Structure formats: structure tokens, C-alpha cells
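Rotation project, supervised by the postdoc (A.L.). Task for the rotation student: set up a whole-complex structure prediction and record inputs and outputs verbatim in this book. Inputs entered:
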Amino acid sequence: MGLAAVSEENLLKLVEVEEPDENDYHLQEQVGFILRKAHQRHVSIFAAHIADLTPPQFAALAKLRDVGETSQNQLGTLIAMDAATVKGVIDRLKARGLVELSKHEVDKRRLLVNLTAQGRDAIERLIPLARDITEETLAPLSQKEVATFMKLLAKLA
Amino acid sequence: MGLAAVSEENLLKLVEVEEPDENDYHLQEQVGFILRKAHQRHVSIFAAHIADLTPPQFAALAKLRDVGETSQNQLGTLIAMDAATVKGVIDRLKARGLVELSKHEVDKRRLLVNLTAQGRDAIERLIPLARDITEETLAPLSQKEVATFMKLLAKLA
DNA sequence: TTGATATCATTTGCATACGAATGAATTTTT
DNA sequence: AAAAATTCATTCGTATGCAAATGATATCAA
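Outputs recorded:
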């Protein structure tokens, strides 16, 4: 069998032997790409259940409910947002009367953030919906798969 | 044992029996929150390896390498970006000479996108780095865990 | 054919997200 | 205490990401 008789399929196999990876990079199989899509899907589910708040805004309120009054920076650390991002989120929550700001008496650099009564009402009301969001996001998995997935995902976060 | 003698721990247990979930919502255990953090970590790893391109920009180039010339909208579908987002990404790639645009001869609505020679060089050069990025992102997992995780993640995306 | 729909692209507005630079206040070091 | 380093917050610039509105073109249906 001469070289000219080699089928295209077999030629590709030969090439693969010589250059193992060069040609078989598939974007849709990369963690980063799928992670981005999974996140997109979750945000979409979130928006369908909670229309008037974004996930980062919800995270800020939920965390303030947990820890009570904290500095803006500290809150950012707790919800994995850098200083510039958290400022915007808090500004918008403040504009809507869900949080209130005050200056730290001792350390004048710090800006304290806390829930308002309205903010507390809102987060209490939304938490049941957030449970639904988590459930719907994980719906494609069985109960056992959920446990496995959460364990592995946590390792990557 | 009178009520006053109930320890705080046991009191909490009693409360939990009466109100199963009301108080134990933990943001850091929710899929959405961890998904967001995992994505953040990946983007950070990406930036450490490929400084001059963002993940969406890389995705556009990688997909164009796969499929060749396509319409802007079609490309957006392939890399999971809506029309408004893909436009910005393509505009920036065009400004850097990595892609070129042309009008579809038959369907005058369509804007065709393709790699330039420079864009092709760039993506070929970057793909090995992208493999490293994927590897580093998944580094906290064993080989078996990677297989499991990718299977489950794909179900959620 | 024409009238209703659908598709492609663009634009606007809003909300993350983060690097980098800056200024104010605090803490550490010398 | 004075100098150096750190921390907290803000601002600026750039880049997604998406909903909604718009205009141009194509397709479908009556």
C-alpha cells in the first residue's frame, strides 16, 4: 500500500502519533469553559427566582445576616469580592435601603456595614427562595452525585 | 431538669427540631457561591499563564480555529456568549489584528469572523499554555476525581 | 405578493470583576 | 518618636455579561 493510498483517517492517526496533542484541543472539554457555563446557568436560575437582587447582592445580605455589622473590606473577604467590587455592591444595597453605613469609632479607616430592618426582612424572605435555587441548580444530579460534586467543587474553589 | 437548666447547645437542638431550616442557611455551602469562587480561581490561574488575553477572548480564537469562518452570532452560540457580549470580544480582537471581519455575500445581515494569520499564530502558540491552565485548575483533584468531577460538572452546564 | 415572524447585529444601560494608583489612618520597625 | 510598612477605602480604566430596544434583512404564511 503506497503512501498515496493512505486514507485521510489513517493519515490523521499517523499525525497524532507524531504530534500527540497538537490538534485535539477541544474548548468545550476544558474545565474553565464548562465552569463558566455552569456558573452562567446558575445565575440564570437565580434570576428566575429572585428578580430584584443579584447573586453578589444576595451574598452580601446573607453574610451580613450571619456575622452582623462588619467593615466593608471584611465583608468582601467573607464573600470573596475585592474591595472595588464590594464597594459597588454595597453602594447599590445602600441606595435601596437594605444596608446602612457608619464610621468605625476607633479605626477611622473602616466603614461599617449593617443590615437595616428592611434588609433583614428581605434576606429572611429570600432565603427560602435561595434554597430552591440551590436545589434547581443541582437538579440534574442524583443525591449521591450532589454530595460527590460538592466535595470536589469545594476542593477547586 | 427544669427548662432553665437546658444548655445552650440543647436549646439550639430543640429549636432546630421545631424550625428545621430557618436558621442554618450557610452561604459558603451553596453551589452558586462555590461555583463562583471556583470560576474566580480558574480565571486567576488563566491570567497567570496568559496575561495578554482573557478567557472569553481565548475561547473565541480557539473556536474559530476549530470551525473556521463563521458569523458573529454563530460564534457566540458556540462559545456560550450572547450577541452583545460577543460583539465586544470580537471588536477587541479585531482591534488587535487577531481576527478579521467581512460581510456575508448572500445574507447581508451576517458579519463573518475569521482568524488572521497573526490570530492563528497566537492561538497555536497559546494552546499549550491552555493545557497547563486546565491542569493547574484541576491540580487539587486526583486523576479519578477529575474524571468524576468533569462528568458531573458537564451535567450542570 | 405582502404581511407577519424570525434572525443578525448594534446600541444602551446596568452590574459584576479586578488591576493599579491614590490617600488616609494604623501598626510595626527601628 | 520617626520612618517604614500595612490596611481600608476610593477611584479609574478595562472587560465581561445580560436584558431590552432598534434597525436591517430574510423567511414564512396567507
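Student's summary: Residues 40, 43-44, 47, 71-74, 83-84, 87, 107-111 of chain A lie near DNA strand D (CB under 10 Å from a C1').
Supervisor addendum: Confidence is low (pLDDT under 50) at residues 1-9 of chain A.
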